[in-house]
Amino acid sequence: MTSFTLRFVFIVCVLAFPGACNTMSPGCTDALASNFDPSATSNDGCCTYDTAYIAPEKTLELPVELEETSGLILWDGYLWTHNDNSDTRLYGLDPATGKVKKTHILWKVENYDWEEISQDEAYIYVGDFGNNGSGDRQDLHILRVEKNSLKSGKPSIDTIWFSYSDQTDSSPAGPNQTDFDCEAFVVTSDSIYLFTKQWLSGSTTIYALSKEPGEYVAQRRNTLDVGGLVTGATYLEEKGLVVLCGYSGLSQPFLYLLYDYPEQEFFSGNKRRINLALLFHQVEGIATEDGSTFYISNEYSGFRSSGFQNTQKLHVFDLDPFLRKYLEGD
User: Could you give the CA distance from residue 27 to residue 194 in angstroms, rounded to a whole number?
Assistant: First the structure.
């Protein structure tokens, strides 16, 4: 039962049978969970799940110019990605082949550490907020690119600057020694939500800020222990679904499925980890249009001199077995 259905049932209960509403029973309402409670009528976020592994349906090699691919969105018939080096181009990929079909240059901006890309109906957002070098960046920002202007070849770009509400100490730390790094965010109808990459704790924290140009303090919401490093996010607002990607240990990639949550309280509903059968792959980007077919990218990793390397690739996964019942409202 979806959160929308539960709210509707509660409203009907209040209006028609006020005394009977006390029978609303919280618990795990997801039939796929190991602790599913068929008597529960409201999801309290307690669901737990058996360990799951999935392999890609298809894997495609990406071109050499995308060795540091670091984000994905589906827009205008293409998968759009970017690098997290000095390259200021957006690359449009054919989802069927992984080949570059279009490019757009973002003029008069720099790529200090572009780590993620997201979108709404009117804009593409590029997150220049990678902060793992020393954890003390003072210029964290998101570029907002108007879509129609991008198509015309004259991109109109403005900037959303931010800091973290609870980062009171901005002293430099060692490489990969901060919990104030970020490589994932989603854009809703009214806000931006960051999901941090926490090197010290292995968790991710949500921070909220405005999607309008300006300077903001990103407000801390809540934290989820994911046992790894979150590197990407995709969001279907109309379906109430967020999926995070990341990796742990020896670059063991995983997904976190977040669904059946109230409003934008992403960690208050179901939280299911899916391990990906792609050992030693540093996954970076994730995108979907339907909540069933997911595209996940990894950047180049390894050492050419030793012969160990994983080249940059695009993987296609089917998450229908895990999400169909929820998305269809069964």
Answer: 28
The tokens describing 110, both together, are 């720099």
Residue 137 CA to residue 120 CA, distance in Å, equals: 27
The Cα–Cα gap between 68 and 296 comes to 14
Strand order in the sheet with 73-75: 73-75, 78-81, 89-93, 100-105
- Cα angle: 31, vertex 32, 38; to 5 degrees: 20
Q: Which residue has the higher pLDDT, 295 or 251?
A: 295
CATH number of the domain that 208 lies in?
A: 2.115.10
Query: For 32-47, how does the pLDDT look when each residue is reduced to its tens digit (9 = 90+)?
Result: 999 999 999 999 999 9
In this structure, are 95 and 8 located in the same domain?
no
Query: Is residue 116 domain-shared with residue 136, that is, in the same domain?
Result: yes
pLDDT digits (tens, 9 = 90+) for 244-289: 999 998 889 999 999 999 999 999 999 999 999 998 999 999 999 9
Q: b/e for 234-256, b at 16 or more Cβ within 10 A?
A: bbbeeebbbbbbbbeeebbbbbb
Are 229 and 324 within one domain?
yes
- The sign of the CA dihedral 227, 230, 233, 238 is positive
- Same domain? 27 vs 80: no
Do 188 and 308 sit in the same domain of this protein? yes
Residue range 194-216, pLDDT digits in tens:
999 999 999 999 999 999 999 99
Asked if 149 and 186 sit in the same domain, the reply is: yes
Place of tokens 């990793």: 301
Q: Are residues 43 and 58 in the same domain?
A: no
What pLDDT, on the 0 to 100 scale, is given for residue 110?
98
Residues 27 and 76 in one domain: no
Contact at 8 Å (CB) between 197 and 147? no
What CA–CA distance (Å, rounded) separates 96 from 7? 40
The tally of domains found in the chain comes to: 2
Domain of residue 14 covers 1-48
